[in-house]
Design goal:
Helix content of chain B: over 70%
Distance between the termini of chain A: 37 Å
Largest sheet of chain A: 7 strands, mixed
CATH superfamily of chain A: Spore Coat Polysaccharide Biosynthesis Protein SpsA, Chain A
Low-confidence stretches of chain B: none
Largest sheet of chain B: none
Structural class of chain A: alpha/beta
Shape of chain A: globular
Strand order of the largest sheet of chain A: 3-2-1-4-6-5-7
Mean pLDDT of chain B: 92
Order of helices and strands of chain B: HHHH
Strand content of chain A: 15-25%
Number of strands of chain A: 7
Largest interface: A-B, 21 and 16 residues
Number of strands of chain B: 0
Distance between the termini of chain B: 83 Å
Shape of chain B: elongated
Strand content of chain B: under 5%
Structural class of chain B: mainly alpha
Order of helices and strands of chain A: EHEHEHEHEHEHHEHH
Number of domains of chain A: 1
Oligomer: heterodimer
CATH topology of chain A: Spore Coat Polysaccharide Biosynthesis Protein SpsA, Chain A
CATH architecture of chain A: Alpha-Beta Complex
CATH class of chain A: Alpha Beta
Chain lengths: 222, 119
């Protein structure tokens, strides 16, 4: 099946080339959306053998992923994988995240850093993520072990039918809301998330969780 | 009628006239025109008949008329803030759509130029 990896990148000049090089070993079709980076990210992406897109200015990870997903669908993608650009995830796990879709066992496969103990999750991050899991449970009814993991795979059918409007970090909750509402088959698989000082500085803060809740709340009135 | 009352009533009348013009030009929906119209009418009535606020305040158990006006104003201001916030979010989404369109369009142009150059 024609598989695309979609990566949203914002100010990732330090990591992006290595990540793209590693991802290419497991998937040839890569779409990278530079989300209005102020550093050399876009120039570096263009040197790699990937499809590069650029947002004129920063619109958020959710917006960048949707741009990449739209382009992947226009190019005949049958499976779409979303992957982070900050080096936390392991490209080696790409074949594993796609397998349940290839086997017809799931429409959406979500990576979970809590299904095994390989991820070195700092306590503060664990606390935020657990709150997000609880929030997902009460808003969608989904019993997940990890609700805000950017490593996921979905069929083209799912990508076409989910209505993504959230530009920023609330997109992860929105994907789950849509998947639950439209009753797609979901499966979680264990993935490794390696935290580094670099990724922690770029990642979500506790205030980000509050912002996600507010974004989802105001979404009801737009 | 004192000078302050005169100025505020004049502003209210001017605003009501402007509202009706905007509504006729279809720049405002019926709901919006009605909400703003009611607000300016209330302002004009309260300024012309200040005692009315004391009657309402007594009915509501607030105490003084001026307190009732302040509570009402705070509610209205919060509501307007909320609407402005929603409006801003909507504009942000529209901006994203434009940014996305340009980004994908640029890619297609780049690809078609590459194909032309190859020929």
């Amino acid at each position: 099946m024609k598989t695309f990896v979609v990566i949203a990148a914002f100010n990732e000049e330090k990591k992006i080339q290595k990540i793209l090089h590693d991802v290419r070993r497991y998937c040839q079709n890569i779409i990278v959306v530079d989300d209005g980076s102020e550093d050399k990210t876009f120039n570096l992406i263009r040197k790699c053998r990937v499809v590069s897109l650029r947002h004129l200015f920063n619109r958020g990870q959710g917006a960048a992923l949707k741009t990449g997903i739209d382009l992947a669908l226009n190019n005949g993608a049958e499976i779409i994988i979303t992957f982070d650009a900050d080096g936390q995830m392991s490209p080696k796990e790409i074949p594993r995240i796609v397998k349940p879709i290839l086997d017809g066992k799931a429409d959406v496969v979500l990576g979970s850093r809590f299904l095994d103990i390989r991820s070195n999750i700092p306590f503060s991050r664990k606390l935020i993520l657990k709150m997000a899991i609880f929030f997902t449970k009460i808003t969608t009814g989904l019993e997940l072990t990890d609700s805000h993991n950017g490593f996921r795979a979905m069929t083209a059918e799912v990508a076409k039918r989910i209505d993504l409007q959230q530009d920023r970090m609330a997109h992860a909750s929105e994907i789950l809301n849509e998947v639950a509402k439209k009753k797609f088959k979901i499966m979680e698989i264990p993935v490794t998330v390696k935290y580094s000082e670099y990724s922690l500085n770029k990642g979500q803060k506790a205030s980000g969780f509050l912002k996600i809740i507010l974004d989802l709340f105001f979404d009801k009135f737009i | 009628m004192n000078l302050v009352q005169l100025i505020i009533v004049a502003i209210s009348v001017f605003s009501l006239l402007k509202l009706s013009i905007k509504f006729k030009r279809k720049e405002l929906s019926l709901k919006e025109a009605f909400a703003w119209g009611v607000l300016w009418l209330i302002i004009a009535i309260v300024v012309l008949l200040p005692n009315i606020t004391s009657i309402i305040a007594l009915e509501l158990g607030v105490g003084r008329g001026v307190d009732a006006v302040i509570y009402f104003s705070v509610i209205v201001i919060f509501y307007i803030l909320f609407r402005v916030f929603i409006w801003q979010k909507k504009i942000e989404r529209d901006i994203t759509k434009i940014v996305r369109y340009i980004s994908i369009d640029e890619k297609y142009h780049e690809n078609s130029n590459k194909r032309k150059n190859r020929k």
